[in-house]
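User:
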Amino acid sequence: MKMEIKTGSGGATALLSGEIDHHNAKELRSQLDKFIISVQPALLVMDFKNITFMDSSGIGLIMGRSKLIRECGGCLEVKNTQPYIRRVLKLSGIERIVKIT
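Assistant: Predicted structure:
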């Protein structure tokens, strides 16, 4: 699992690649939380373009980061999800709290 964060104009994009599962979600949470707390971006976009697999750990990852960034005054958006990941996210109801594009 790789993640690269690009910043600019008060916002940031976390480019994720690989698999999001219980094996690597903890490390992603840690990295994203440190970034959100230190930078406090107005908008954080999680780009799922290169995610090849996601289980329920990915839903937890998104929900937790959404809560944290709102507490810091920002918002979270998820973009470029694969069709099956988009279906999982819709079924979870996460679209009520996070914008999925």
